[in-house]
Amino acid sequence: MSSGKDVKECGHHGDRRRKLFRGILACILIFNLIILITILLIWAILRPTKPRFVLQDVTVYAFNTSTPNVLTSNFQVTISSRNPNDKIGIYYDKLDTYADYRNQQITLRTAIPPTYQGHKDVNVWSPFVYGTDVPVAPYNSIALGQDQSTGAVLLTIKIDGRVRWKVGSFVSGKYHLYVKCPAYINFGSKGSGVTVAENAVKYQLVTRCTVSV
Predict the structure, then answer these.
(1) Which residues pair with 54 in a beta bridge?
(2) Distance separating alpha carbons of residues 2 and 38, to the nearest angstrom
(3) DSSP letters of 113-161?
(4) Rounded distance, CA 8 to CA 44, Å?
(5) SS3 of 207, please?
(6) What is the pLDDT of residue 207?
(7) Counting beta carbons within 10 angstroms of the beta carbon of residue 204, is it exposed (0 to 12), middle (13 to 18) or buried (19 or more)?
(8) pLDDT digits over 25-53, tens only?
(9) Could you give the CA distance from residue 42 to residue 171 in angstroms, rounded to a whole number?
(10) How far apart are CA 51 and CA 212, in angstroms?
(11) How many angstroms separate the CA atoms of 170 and 165, rounded?
């Protein structure tokens, strides 16, 4: 008889342990759910706004198309970024900038050092982007020759990167940042640029960029 009683008591102990385990698990799940809902509410209320980019100027050190279907170029671009958010910071984990002509990349990518941008802060970068003997598609080479004959070339300075948002102590996952800045270079008019060095001309642009996050 005692052995049956012992089995029943062991069974009761096992049930209590399972109930205790389920209760602890339920509390953890509820706690995590509350945290997630709180973060989502804060995120919805603050509504993070994507940063604003402006292409300030482009200095042309080289732009050589003398060889058919080949381009050698060297630019220094000045780009500013402003965080318009009052309570949200931005981590720029990765920023690669390069020049593009008619959807063809014509320079190597230049990395901008990672940085943190506080509320309402402005960052300014002046990287060099260049390419030596870069092959150009034949149809783009023809279009480029036509543009140069008219004295003006429309390039696009692009930025490809990763950002994270910071709200208080919470930091979001990484988001893809894509920036496009039109750069209208008027080679035909010396008055549109300023000579800053031998064979180098600086063009003041101050054009707003399109930003996708």
Answers:
(1) 80, 208
(2) 54
(3) PPEEE-TT-EEEE--EEEEEEEE--HHHHHHHHHHHHHTEEEEEEEEEE
(4) 54
(5) strand
(6) 95
(7) exposed
(8) 888 988 888 877 776 766 665 568 999 99
(9) 12
(10) 9
(11) 8
What's the rounded Cα separation, in Å, for the pair 163 and 80? 16
Residue with tokens 């732009």: 63
Q: Identify any residues that bridge with 93 across adjacent strands, giving them in sequence order.
A: none
Which residue, 52, 49, 48, is CA-closest to 209?
52
CA angle (40 as vertex; 34, 44 as ends), nearest 5:
145
Report the C-alpha gap between 135 and 106 in whole angstroms. 8
Q: What is the pLDDT at residue 17?
A: 76
- Indicate the length of the chain as a whole number: 213
Contact (Cβ atoms closer than 8 angstroms) between residue 155 and residue 101? yes
The pair of structure tokens assigned to 61 is 């050190």
Residue ranges for the chain with pLDDT beneath 50: none
List the one residue out of 100, 73, 202, 72 whose CA is nearest residue 160. 100
- What's residue 13's pLDDT? 60
Residues linked to residue 92 through DSSP beta bridges, in sequence order: 115, 163
Pairing of strands 70-82, 52-64: antiparallel
Strand ranges for the chain from DSSP E: 52-64, 70-82, 89-101, 104-105, 110-112, 115-117, 122-125, 128-135, 152-167, 170-171, 175-186, 194-197, 200-208, 210-212
